[in-house]
Queue: 4 jobs
Job 1
Amino acid sequence: MARGEWGYQGLWRGKWCCSYKKTTLIICFINIVIALYVLRSIYASIYVFSRNDLKVVKYTPDQIRNMEESVRIRRDNEPMALVKLVNGLKQEFSRDESVFELPRAVKLRMIDEILRRLRSSDVKGNVSAQREAVESWRREKLEEAKQLSIGRQGINSTILQEEARMLVRVLESDWAALSEEIGLWIPTEIIHKEHGDKPKGVEDEDLDEDVLPGRPPPPECHAELHTDYDGVAVRWGLTHHRDSAADCCQSCIEQAKRAKPGQMKCNIWVYCPAETGCHSPDKYEHKYQECWLKYAEKPKLNFKDRYSEKYRNAHPAAPLVVPWVSGVVSL
């Protein structure tokens, strides 16, 4: 009985094993079929895409002729000479930079030598002496570099022979650029000479004020230097500036022509030619190029030539000479 049961169980297990293997094979087969289908679809899409890309566009003979003609015209219009010139300059500049670029160690050594030369020369504050000391060093170093470039090396030489040619070039023709590169700057000396050619008894202020800037006023303006005429203001000069006394006079003449009946017509113009401004006893600050247009039935002087001593005592800020320029025009 036990044997019968065991045989039955073994038979059932064998059938189960056979069924499991078949199931595994079927699943693997289905997966292989699906994979092949996917690969076929991918290949077909790639093939169709490549076929579409390989389409050849056919041009007519006229179109080909037009394209060739456009290419020829474009090539003819290219500035070949200019392109060659620019390329040649680029190559030359790159060659110069590569050949004549001094090593950093050489530049530092040059700076040390220049500083030692300036200290030993004791030229503090003397610009001319500083320039002479640096120029003397440059001449000596240039001579040394020239001797090295032809194979004559000195005993106390501080540069190598392969650097000699570069030093000759920069010290002889590119010294200004090298000075700026190593930070060597010496201010330009300004020589001021005072000429004592002014007449005796004439003060500086008189000479300065005698020169009227700008174009000279025409005769009809009757310009008078160092003169300030009184009158009723037709146009305030605080907001009315002109480039010259002639322009101020012209403004007065034009105002008189444009004036309507019953309005005051300008017959006096007063101009400030001093860049530092012009003095007046009123409360305003009168600036350079102010142009006052005035009217007076009988023009009268406010000030002429010089301010009196009494006036200057009462107005300490007043200058010695009247700075204004005035004129009376006929209506």
Note: Residues 2-53 form the longest helix (52 residues).
Job 2
Amino acid sequence: MQIEGRVMGLGHPDYANTMYLLAKVLSQQRKRNDAEAVIRESIRILEEAGLGESPACIQRMRFLSLELVKSKRLVEAENLQRKILHNLELSKGWDSLDTTMAAETLSVTLQTIGELKESEELLERCLAVRRKILSENHFEVAGILVHLARLTLLKIISDIKVNNDLSRSHLVKAKQLVSDSIRITEGILNPLRENQKKLKSTIGIEREKIGATAVLLQALEVVGLLEATRKRKQEPGSDYDHAEQALRKCISLYNKPYTRNVVSKYLRQQYERCLSSLMHIIQLDPDILNAPGMQDLLGESQRIMKELGEEKNTK
């Protein structure tokens, strides 16, 4: 890198690209302070070269944002994410998937720091744009629905003043949002024959199914949280999906050859999070824990967790 800097100059965009690659390596080595310093310098070079709104600079700012989130520096991450969104609004406008991606990332950070109203406004706007550009049944639309469902539950949990009627209304809304997300993703993973003909490329099908699997795992986790919140609020449960049903779906995902391969190759961490979250919720609820066949389901879940751990250790 030092040779490249002397040849091209330390302010050359290609040198900034080399620094970005180095930052990624440093991050993988868990040298986050070094990675942050290098990526900040890469961004500075591009901005001083008049490329602050370029795709390359946006990419680097997204990387830095992720590093800040990993380091729990959420205020700094929020400020950078606002800058990314602002730049994309200026360069591409709101009718752009890149802009909705930036808004979605910012909305998740806002949820984490408790800014639920602004987070919801951003997600609603993302949802409208994605439905317009993509389709009602696209996995990226389903992803926004899951975020909105989780946010709706956070409203109940974070506000002790929520009355019973409003709490019940939020639970119904969250259930509908997560149910729609599950319907969309399961439709992608198990398409009807006439819908299969519409899918053109193998690469496109692969991407759709990986994305749908990732969103479905998030949705199943939210189903468990929905049940836990319902119990906490002592709401009647006859109209709600149970964590048990979500656990069965999660196990079924792993037992199907295709999605099992997707989980092993791309989504192990997401799958482990979903499965462990559902197991934890069930183990804390005697009504579900003592249901017929539940111990067998938990045993199967523990077997899968052990298998995934062994796969991870061999790589």
Note: The first helix runs from residue 2 to 8.
Job 3
Amino acid sequence: MVEMHEMVPGKRFDRYHELGQHAFGEKLGLYIVVPQQLIVEVGVCIVYMVTGGKSLKKFHELVCENCKSIKLTYFIMIFASVHFVLSHLPNFNSISGVSLAAAVMSLSYSTIAWSASAAKGVKENVEYGYKAKSTAGTVFNFFSALGEVAFAYAGHNVVLEIQATIPSTPEKPSKGPMWKGVVVAYIVVALCYFPVALVGYWMFGNSVDDNILETLEKPAWLIATANMFVVIHVIGSYQIYAMPVFDMMETVLVKKMNFRPSWYLRFVVRNFYVAATMFVGMTFPFFGGLLAFFGGFAFAPTTYFLPCVMWLAIYKPRRYSLSWWTNWICIAFGVCLMVLSPIGGLRTIVIQAKDYKFYS
């Protein structure tokens, strides 16, 4: 994606769909890319609504043990209230401070998670076997896990929009600093996720929650702090994925439906989007199931095989060359991920929904 941003001399593909149009044609490119990208970005925002609400609820329970329990629905509404304000920032540059804070918080809360787990020690009677009791359950859980991993490594969907904010000249193209940013981003992701996964499983085995911070209880002040770090992280991340949706919605309303660009059009569109993702998050607050479903159904195409298809269509590498084989292997993997992961995710949601009361 980084390399294809300025593949045509004198032109920059600032949006995912623009690159799709160059690869597949004006109309077909839109039909292929835009629906997938919208599903990704809307899906992420819904998951972040649920994550933010659950982290706020956990924070409240830890700092006020004797307080009356408050519904998760209300915490999701509290989290959404922040976005009713931040969503009116104009572009990616204006949320750079929020994004930086989100990155720092991500590294901080993940460090707290694995260090607190290690300090707690191995749980008594810990089990490391499969969580499911049947072969079918184990297979479905494996499908679900694939989707969750895909969700974790899926920042490709906004790469072009982010790279568009970097100044570029023929002497110093934007791909230079962008590649450095991508490498740093993946190093940070690895530092966040791998220690948590390894130490968390070592300490709690198969009883660990989807969000390990829900499993941990003590020291209360440290786990409460980590949950607030999560909230700050997903506030910034929500905005990063919401900005392209705002741009698409406002562009369609102005160019296709002849609305006059104005502050109240922006006000209505952005508030409607935040309210819609808040409502869906309140209705289906199934963190693990949503991760797996959206990770496979939406993230797999836009992250794992659409960029490879575009690369093959545009660059046309020699058949059976290393580039040709690498892209086709990624395409095959991405298609399998897209088909299998949503099955596991939907099953997880159905199981979790059995005893769930809406808006509880």
Note: The chain has a mean pLDDT of 81.
Job 4
Amino acid sequence: MAARGGGGEAAAASVASAAGRSSGGGMRLFSPEYYALCFGGGMLAAGTTHLAITPLDVLKVNMQVNPVKYNTIFSGLSVLVKEEGASSLRRGWGGKLFGYGAQGGCKFGFYEFFKKQYSDVLVGSNKSTVYFLSSASAQIIADVALCPFESVKVRVQTNPMFAKGLVDGFPRVYAAEGLSGFYRGLIPLWGRNLPFSMIMFSSFEHTVDFLYKKVIQKRKEDCSTAQQLGATCLAGYISGAVGTVVSNPADNIVSSLYNKKAKNVIHAVKSIGLRGLFTRSLPIRITLVGPVVTMQWFFYDSIKIFTGLPPSGGLPRELEEANK
């Protein structure tokens, strides 16, 4: 698929100017409207799925901060409900809906944008290079959008006396720590989400490609909607599970910093321990993240398909060739 010599330059120019229409004959691929749809689809997909698993997220954060008290999923849920009531499982829902909605919009929308840009510039480069660079660039922006919401959410979920939600939580964080309080965990958040996002997007892309070529043995444009969404869901689950294992150490560090269980990253690593970094809360994170990532890709690609766009996967020049 790599272009050669002068033909490579011509191919790059063609890719930059083509932006052919989708197979449905409607919205133009890689147009401003296309990126807006990807941003909106990512926001809806991420916000709603994260909202749905708020109770498990409350438990996950408490397991990371107090692993002795909340040592298993079932006993941890029981302790939370018994001591703080069933309403405790809803704490932080605003941060999940709006924070992860903003993150999802930026993550999916900018991934599509950067994948187009890097694909045009790095003609002939390894696909994984484009996927890694695109996802990392998008995630950096996405986490800047998420960080203030995450800062409040974690405090609300682990300290019932801190605030009830975003409305009273934002002013309290600002009054106590200023603007820097909202970005206290940005570096660890990047440390958690950058590896996760790079592995997740790359794994998804390669798994989708494998499924169409080796399992379904059809071009995705020739597949039924059920086949397309089936491939999306399977690739989504695999990519989410792999990314979770890679990002678990940083996720534990983030929770420790936000709850002031550690002064800095080095202190957090020493406090949690090397084994704890990789194993603490890992079962519940896999329980959470696998289905969540699957549903995000399902909703995201459903929006694409039902607006006449091709499902996710592949380099932009491949999509344009398929939809000419």
Note: The first helix runs from residue 5 to 18.
